C-alpha cells in the first residue's frame, strides 16, 4: 500500500485469534479520589512507601523494553499525601483500602518476594507486567481476595503451580509471554475455582492439555508445544466461549463432542496443528460461533453443511487442508459472514450463481486460491456483494472483541504476510491459481472498496477491462500468468494507491503507461509480455521511427501511378500556374524595356548639354 500498508489467527489469507493483552484496567486511570476527611490506612501507606524505597534502590534492567527509571512512575507517592490519590494505586470507594496496584515496567528482579505485599490484605488486582520476574511470586498464595493477576511479559520459568487453581477469588490470570514449560499435577478433580480467564499464550508448555476448572470461559494455549489429542474433558467446560490452541503440535481427530459447546462457544481456533480426519459436527440453530479457524491442518472430507445454522458466524477459515468439495454456496445465507478462507484445498467445479440477491451480504475477504475451480469468474456474485461495493456505516476498528482480535495471513503485494490484524474495512478478493477461463467481466470494477485483487495463474483471456480504473482504493493488483491481450489501459493511472502491480506472462503489447504509481514499478511487473515497450523495460518505443514510417507512407502514395493523387493533380497545378507565370514574366520584361529606354534618353540629353557648354567656352576665349 502505499505503504501497504494497511494490509493478514493468521490465515492464508488467514486468521489467528490472539487474546487481548490484558483485561487489567490501567490503575493510573482509575485511581479513586477519597472523600474529604477519609484516607487510606496507615499500614497500607507504610507498605507502599517501603515498596517505593525498594524500587528506587533497584538497578534498572537493560533488557526490559521501555522500562522507566527507578521510581519515575511513583513520584506522587509522598508522606504528606493520601495514598488513594497516588498514581498506580486504586482504593475502594467506601472503605479506602488499597484494592489495586499497577507496577508494570518496574524492575522487581530479586525483590518480588521481599516487598511488603502481605500488608495489603485487601488487594484484588495486581499488575506486574514486564517487571523482569523469574518466578510466580509465592506471596500470591496468601492474597485470599485477589481477583485479577497479570504476570505477562516476564521471565517466569518452571511449571504452572497447582495452588493457582485453589485461589478461590481469582477470576483472571494472565501468564502469557513467559517461559513456562508445563503444569504441576492439578488437584484431584473435581475442584472448585472461580477462574474464568486463563491466558498461557507464547510459552514453552509441552505435553497434553490438563484437566482445567469447569468455570473457565476464556482459554488461550496458543503458541506452545502441546501434543496429543484434545481431551474429552474439555467438552465438559460448559461455560467455554473462547478456545484458542493455535500454533501447537496437537494431532488426532477433533472430538465430535465439541459440537455440544456450539451453543456457548464463540471462538474455536485450532489453526496450525496436525489434526486429521473429517469435520463431523452437526451444529444446531442455537450455534453461537463467530469464528471457526482450522487453517493448516490435515482435515479431509466435506465442509459441514450444519454451519449454515451458525447465523452469527463472521470468520470461517478452512484453508490449507485436504477438503474435497465444491463451492459452499449455501453459506450465502449467513448474514454476518465477513471472511471466507478456503484456499489450498481440493475444491472443484464452477462457482455457480447465487441463490438469492442478498447472498453473502457482508463478505469482505474471499480467498479461494490454489484450488481447482473452473468456468467463468462469478460475475453474478460480483454484482451483489454489497460490502465490497458500498461503504457501510461503522468506524475504523479491528475485527474481534475485548478478549481477542482476528488476524490473517495473506498473499499481498507479491509477498506472504502473516499475523496482520484484520481491519473491519479491509477488502480482499483472491481467486488465483485456479482454472477459471473467459474474460474479466466489467462488473468487477463495481467492487470499489477492494484493496487487494488477485486473479493470477488462470486461463483468462481478452483485454484488461477499463472498469478496473474505478477501483481507486486498490493497493495490490495481480493479473499475471493468464492470456490477456491488448494494451495496458491508460486509465489505470488513476489508481494512485497502487503499490504492487503484476501483469507478467500475458500477451500484452504497446506502450506502458507513464506517470503516478506506474513510475515506481520494476521490470518484473511486465516480464513475459514481448509486445510491451517503454519504461521500465529496456525495449524502447521509438516515436521517430513512427514519424519516418508516416513520411515514407505519404511518399509512396504520391509515387504510386495508380493512385488518384498522382499526375492528374500535377497537370491541374501546371495548367493553373503556367498562365500566371507568363503574365508575371511579361510584366517584368515590359518594365525592364521601359527602364532601359529611359536611361538611354537621359544619357543622350546629358551628353548634348555638355557639348553645348564646351562650345560656349571656346567662343569666349576667342
TrEMBL record:
Topological category with respect to the lipid bilayer: Single-pass type I membrane protein
UniProt similarity note: Belongs to the RLP family.
Provenance organism: Populus trichocarpa
Lineage summary: Eukaryota, Viridiplantae, Streptophyta, Embryophyta, Tracheophyta
Designated name of the protein: Leucine-rich repeat-containing N-terminal plant-type domain-containing protein
Ranges annotated as spanning the membrane: 565-589
Cell compartment(s), UniProt: Cell membrane; Membrane
Record-linked SUPFAM superfamilies: L domain-like
Chain ranges of the Leucine-rich repeat-containing N-terminal plant-type domain: 42-91
Cellular component GO terms held in the UniProt record: plasma membrane
Keywords, ordered alphabetically: Cell membrane, Glycoprotein, Leucine-rich repeat, Membrane, Receptor, Repeat, Signal, Transmembrane, Transmembrane helix
Signal sequence range: 1-22
